[in-house]
Amino acid sequence: MSSLKSIWNCLFSPRLIQIYGTGAEQMYEEDPLERWGNQIINSLYMMWKVGLCTSPLWGSALYNKGYFQLQELPFIAKCATGVGVILVISFCIRGLSRAKNPAYLKFLDVLQRAENDMVATKPELMKYDFEFKSWPVEYDLSDTKSPTPKASPRVAVPQGAFQNIVSIPFRVIAYLAIHTFGIRLIYPGVLGVLQAVLEKGLLKGRTRLIEVYAGQRYKLKTVDGNSIDTMVLDRRSSYANGDTLVICCEGNAGFYEIGTVITPIEAGYSVIGWNHPGFGGSTGMPYPAQEQNAIDAVIQFAINILGFKVENIMLFGWSIGGYAVSWAAMTYPDIKSVVIDATFDDIMPLALSQMPSWLESIVKLAIREHANLDIYEQLSKYPGPVLLIRRTEDEVICIRPGDLSSNRCNNLLIKIFKTRYPCMCELPQVQLLHEYLAVTGVLQEKILEKYSIDDSICTSLLQSYISEFSKSYPMKIGQDFSPTEKNQMILFLAKKYMKDFKATHCVALPWDMFAVPWDVNVEPDFVYT
């Protein structure tokens, strides 16, 4: 009886991939029958997914050939029955093989105990790498008493009844486009094919985080029911920077296993990495609302479960990860600071530059109504320190390849300055900023020398303003400045807010480039002289 129960439990149990803690990487060795069963099941699953995506093509072809007529139904039923029989046999063979494997039965026992008492069983469960869908949920955001308010995406609504009627077909097309291929173009990491190609690399990266850096894996559940695959490295007791938690947000094809987390890890911080909805072990799709719920769950988990204070949390985003960072910074204004690498101000210009001009109206509708990734709009509502890292050879964020002046990070910086220091951003100063941001390295240094930038004087002026008025934005500093003083101050601020990194878009950021953003500190008794 117990054997039958074991076989039954093994029929639909998760695939075991790797066993940790053996001193070396140890892949779980499947028996030949289990391997055969898995291959059949996975092949049929992939055929099903591909079939769904291509159903309009083969469905219309079969219809034209008359396969959907009544007399053809027995043939279709036979085919479906045959596939069903193969699938059932594959599950049975796989379950039987697993039930005879002591290593798998030991894992299954740990998993079943973890479902009842995750806290006590977590150390044992961390020894196994398996299909994440079966990992028990460890934090459910719906359990919290104070849900975080969500920002509504901006929607471009045509004015007037006639325009509304005329726009209906375009809106339908925009909706279908973004919910079929559009979101996958924006976030290619959600594609199963790409994840299959990266599977070994993701496993290797995850192994490194767990075995080398003592990372702990968690499953978080968002308010909309998605599961978020999360990796935590709590280093509060072992590193000088460990009291500061860095939450990393990856790019559109980035995963925490092989992504930005390594940069703050090597810099000695406590770190949380998480995968976008639909990436890796996370469920869902990376639409803006689901992205917001995901980062919200991560921050709430860090505060309520890990015990980090909001003022000790830094946000670090790379590329499109700047969207989640900017939303979190806006929603949690007491966050310590924000660092964003290789990002943009608004996805619209980048999207338009990649699509045919005749699709412009549909692209605008699709972006603004369904994928409104406007990083500046959200970041402008954050009152804390910000550091932008610009890739000087970025081939993704530049509208014109090889033209540094078209890097959209420039636009983000200028927009931030217009919001924070409006009196410093008159036309001559904006033109000077464009000139400064169009170059890098030695050429920037020459501009700074030309305008005689004195860091101590600029810092003192800011400290004097803050001590007399406040540190809140927008600051009115510069109202009584001469044009020369405004030029000096705006260049000083640009130097502090942005760091250049000579690299292309996907090169890993060195740990020594990662730093707490610059901020103006004012002593209570400060007096400018």
From TrEMBL:
Domain Phosphatidylserine Lipase ABHD16 N-terminal: 6-131
Database matches in InterPro entries: AB_hydrolase_1 (IPR000073), AB_hydrolase_fold (IPR029058), ABHD16_N (IPR054518)
Gene3D superfamilies recorded: alpha/beta hydrolase
Matches recorded under SUPFAM superfamilies: alpha/beta-Hydrolases
Regions annotated as coiled coil: none
Domain AB hydrolase-1: from-to ranges: 245-385
Record-given protein name: AB hydrolase-1 domain-containing protein
Organism: Dendroctonus ponderosae (Mountain pine beetle)
